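Sync notes, pocket subgroup
Present: LS, DG
LS reminded everyone that the earlier model was apo-only. Rerun requested with manganese (II) ion included. Inputs:
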Amino acid sequence: MFTQSEENYLKAIFHLQEETNDGVSTSSLSELLNTKAASVTEMVKKLADKSLVDYRKYYGVQLTELGKNQALSVVRKHRLWESFLVERLNFKWDEVHEVAEQLEHIKSAKLVEELDKFLGRPHYDPHGDPIPDANGNLPKAAKKRLSQLKAGNRAVCKGFNDTSSSFLKYLDRQGIGMDTSIEVLQIESFDESMTIKVDEKEISLSKTATDHIYVED
Amino acid sequence: MFTQSEENYLKAIFHLQEETNDGVSTSSLSELLNTKAASVTEMVKKLADKSLVDYRKYYGVQLTELGKNQALSVVRKHRLWESFLVERLNFKWDEVHEVAEQLEHIKSAKLVEELDKFLGRPHYDPHGDPIPDANGNLPKAAKKRLSQLKAGNRAVCKGFNDTSSSFLKYLDRQGIGMDTSIEVLQIESFDESMTIKVDEKEISLSKTATDHIYVED
DNA sequence: TATTATTTTTAGCTTTGCCTAAAAACAATA
DNA sequence: TATTGTTTTTAGGCAAAGCTAAAAATAATA
Ligand SMILES: [Mn+2]
Ligand SMILES: [Mn+2]
Ligand SMILES: [Mn+2]
Ligand SMILES: [Mn+2]
């Protein structure tokens, strides 16, 4: 099928595409993948040759239907493995990402199907990210960012948009995890930092943090 | 650490070393790894530079202590993953080898330890091959080849020295698996083929087959 | 609009791991 | 021992995926 590197590019394009409407830029890809822009240009041309992306010089790339399906398959594997590691192998949620980055490239249709079955066909991974099904359908949850709430709102944490171990450990220390109930107490206008109540404790979160926390109210 | 390719070479040298006393030849490696002799020579020189093997031109290679430990670690992962696939994910024993060839290269000490714990620290994989422990110790079973038995002997199958799906499926059809009890009825002198009794049925096995079946009596 | 700054692409190199063909070393045999 | 045959190594190349430095295109600004 496709190389590990190609799969990583497709996944990166997929993630960046969720945030912008038009083409994904060379520089954003090179930043996310820790490579140089020149390397991205080269790879992107190869992906275009294989009909995985549409590419117009200087205008960025977009996944084709084929490329999107391929990306979804990798995302599916990544999130299933993360679920497996947390649910069955006693991993903490901040320990799984690096290993899942490796496991997501294992090629075996049967393995994915059996793993999914074994885990009880979960819809969300340990970070609250939706797991695409075998056909690439994503369970669409109407999530808001915590930063979009007003003082007085109550909500439940449903996702975290930062895979770094340091952010996830920080959340642990604050007592914030999946399905944690919170109440917004106050928002400072000068820096948009937020004071929230979690388990009877009041804590303060920066705008950067509240942007990375998804909630349902 | 080491590349996937380097790990495959170390594992191949390890396996070949179990059958010969002195150095592993370039040609045997190239055959096992499906590469050309020239490629083996090159890689072997790199492994020697990294102190993983001892190499003398024209005399073959042998693993150093470091190389052996590394090989054992890969073998351990391969066999633990095979056990996982069969014990937990409904794989048949002839379906696991290819996938384990991929999974054995995943790098995570915690993953190996937790997987081992999850499986109840098994000593043997689905093919009866011993699983090295975390320190590289192999449970040493004094196994014989079925071909070494005489007419009248009874024994129990404890291992199979051929990873090919076709051989394992053949055994399935004959009703032979791990811990199957057998009795040797007759050995033909002209081709060393053997008639054995399995579950009240008499079947005939070639010398090639009986060489690949390990038993305990 | 002309100039400057930024982004993207091109050109040319490097490393890894493989290949083929030719040379060298070792093994077998007349 | 001299010749022939086999195995191993060397030499020279190739594709993948990265890099730096320079050129080209686009964007920003005077
Ligand atoms: Mn992740
Ligand atoms: Mn995740
Ligand atoms: Mn195997
Ligand atoms: Mn096995």
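DG: DSSP finds eight helices and eight strands in chain A.
LS: Strands of chain A lie at 53-55, 61-63, 144-145, 154-160, 181-187, 194-198, 201-205, 213-216.
Action: DG to write up.
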